[in-house]
């Protein structure tokens, strides 16, 4: 494959022409990816990386069936959805067949943000209410309407938050307000939402919607406790609002047993609006909002017409249909169950071995590894997480860290991820944590030095914080031959850096 620019030139040109408009993964030592297939990506030298984070390339990078479907339709016709066409009908039929019956009307859009923005419009139009309840640490998209409801973005400062937006605690039973030892965390967290509704009412405000991811991803791979969504939906509907389930990251079978993650919460829970995106087009920009006839009719009867130039075009729908076909044909949901369970089992063995692992949580191929400095206080191991990620990259494995403390290693690979991939990843994680913990034991009495020799370049703040991970170096430290410092408490500047973290 021909390279237009050398890696160095690409970096310099990117800096000049793109610069701050788009943050890059592994900023201290970015990767130039030239091609990808299945769960693997290849750089300009042909080096292979195991992709453990790309939930957009859902059925595998460049899946031939998806590529073929796009090409074939592109050769024939692409136009907007104001003409009759089979693809949009077929796609809407197939999508709604995966959902509870009352979710029957599809609006096709082009990105997760467009889908969530439209979901807010539908909710606000429905009863004329304006206020939105969102979860702490949530991310719902990059449009201004969504930044307003994304505490992950708007930074939590009281003045940054709009009066019409209310933030409920994330239903995180590991580090949240109510934890696994609480007798009924789902009611406790749902009561927090009820409290917000009551307070809003007492100041004359009205709730249009509660929005949440069915499992919170950017928020740190959080799985809400059973029963929480049912209770929240009851409170919200009583207040005249609707429940929006954001399945942009976690839909399309990622959890394995169900096609939609909200289904994990039981047959008795049906959202009023579901938004979807990322995996839907396997990299092709397509997304959708599905809602009830009642909500859709309330929207159109207001005179509001929704038109989207590209939404639901024949090529996008052909791609979406191909993705659905591949999920089915290759039994990718079955694979998510099998490989996901195996991976969680391997990771739990690592948890028993490594004190740095505080919690393993996940379902199907959506897993989080919560790294802690000490298990008792659950102090987030932020710098360590960054360090692990760079070391993993050095081994050809792509991971990212997220959550409010950036200490949760996120795993959400293409759904064709195999048991061998899982074992490969965990074996390397084991090696990296072993050496890291060995060095951490010698925290006290070690002096500052910056003579590190990483295979992979790290951001300065991670480098001054963390050790050279070679086992020899650790032994030298232990024997007192080497003066090595690494584990100073994180400095505030470092806490602010966002390196291997992204809303994806
Ligand atoms: C949960 C969630 N919702 C919505 C979005 C926005 O999607 P997009 O980037 O396609 O606009 C994202 C993107 O990361 C997301 O994670």
From TrEMBL:
<comment type="function">
    <text>Catalyzes the pyridoxal-phosphate-dependent breakdown of phosphoethanolamine, converting it to ammonia, inorganic phosphate and acetaldehyde.</text>
</comment>
<keyword id="KW-0496">Mitochondrion</keyword>
<dbReference type="InterPro" id="IPR015422">
    <property type="entry name" value="PyrdxlP-dep_Trfase_small"/>
</dbReference>
<keyword id="KW-0663">Pyridoxal phosphate</keyword>
<dbReference type="InterPro" id="IPR049704">
    <property type="entry name" value="Aminotrans_3_PPA_site"/>
</dbReference>
<dbReference type="InterPro" id="IPR005814">
    <property type="entry name" value="Aminotrans_3"/>
</dbReference>
<comment type="subunit">
    <text>Homotetramer.</text>
</comment>
<dbReference type="InterPro" id="IPR015421">
    <property type="entry name" value="PyrdxlP-dep_Trfase_major"/>
</dbReference>
<comment type="similarity">
    <text>Belongs to the class-III pyridoxal-phosphate-dependent aminotransferase family.</text>
</comment>
<dbReference type="InterPro" id="IPR015424">
    <property type="entry name" value="PyrdxlP-dep_Trfase"/>
</dbReference>
<protein>
    <recommendedName>
        <fullName>Ethanolamine-phosphate phospho-lyase</fullName>
        <ecNumber>4.2.3.2</ecNumber>
    </recommendedName>
</protein>
<keyword id="KW-0456">Lyase</keyword>
<dbReference type="Pfam" id="PF00202">
    <property type="entry name" value="Aminotran_3"/>
</dbReference>
């Amino acid at each position: 494959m021909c390279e237009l620019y050398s890696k160095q030139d690409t970096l310099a040109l990117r800096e000049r022409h793109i610069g701050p408009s788009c943050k890059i993964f592994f900023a201290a030592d970015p990767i130039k990816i030239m091609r990808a297939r299945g769960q693997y990506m290849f750089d300009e030298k042909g080096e292979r990386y195991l992709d453990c984070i790309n939930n957009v390339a859902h059925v595998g990078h460049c899946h031939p069936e998806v590529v073929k479907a796009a090409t074939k339709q592109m050769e024939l016709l692409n136009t907007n959805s104001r003409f009759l066409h089979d693809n949009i009908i077929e796609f809407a039929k197939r999508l709604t067949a995966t959902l509870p019956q009352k979710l029957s009307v599809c609006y096709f859009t082009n990105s997760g943000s467009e889908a969530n923005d439209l979901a807010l419009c539908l909710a606000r139009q429905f009863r004329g209410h304006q206020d939105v309840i969102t979860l702490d640490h949530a991310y719902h998209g990059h449009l201004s309407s969504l930044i307003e409801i994304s505490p992950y973005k708007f930074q939590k400062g009281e003045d940054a938050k709009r009066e019409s937006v209310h933030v409920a605690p994330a239903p995180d039973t590991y580090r949240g307000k109510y934890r696994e030892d609480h007798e009924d965390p789902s009611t406790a967290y749902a009561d927090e939402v009820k409290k917000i509704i009551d307070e809003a009412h007492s100041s004359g405000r009205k709730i249009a919607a509660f929005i949440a991811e069915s499992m919170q991803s950017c928020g740190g791979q959080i799985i809400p406790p059973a029963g929480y969504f049912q209770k929240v939906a009851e409170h919200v509907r009583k207040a005249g609002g609707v429940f929006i389930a954001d399945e942009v990251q976690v839909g399309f079978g990622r959890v394995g047993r169900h096609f939609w993650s909200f289904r994990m919460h039981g047959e008795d829970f049906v959202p009023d609006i579901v938004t979807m995106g990322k995996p839907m087009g396997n990299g092709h920009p397509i997304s959708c909002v599905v809602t009830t006839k009642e909500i859709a009719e309330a929207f159109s009867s207001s005179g509001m017409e929704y038109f989207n130039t590209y939404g639901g075009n024949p090529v996008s729908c052909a791609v979406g249909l191909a993705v659905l076909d591949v999920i089915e044909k290759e039994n990718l949901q079955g694979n998510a169950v099998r490989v996901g369970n195996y991976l969680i089992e391997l990771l739990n063995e690592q948890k028993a071995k490594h004190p740095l692992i505080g919690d393993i949580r996940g379902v199907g191929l959506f897993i989080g590894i919560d790294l802690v400095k000490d298990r008792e206080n659950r102090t987030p191991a932020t710098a360590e997480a960054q360090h692990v990620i760079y070391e993993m990259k050095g081994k050809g494995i792509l991971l990212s860290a997220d959550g409010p403390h950036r200490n949760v290693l996120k795993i959400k690979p293409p759904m064709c991820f195999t048991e061998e991939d899982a074992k490969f990843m965990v074996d390397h994680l084991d090696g990296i944590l072993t050496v890291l913990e060995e060095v951490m034991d010698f925290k006290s009495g070690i002096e500052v030095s910056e003579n590190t020799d990483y295979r992979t370049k790290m951001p300065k703040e991670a480098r001054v914080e963390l050790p050279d991970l070679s086992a020899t170096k650790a032994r030298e430290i232990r024997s007192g031959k080497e003066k090595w410092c690494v584990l100073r408490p994180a400095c505030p500047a470092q806490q602010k850096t966002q390196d291997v973290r992204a809303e994806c």
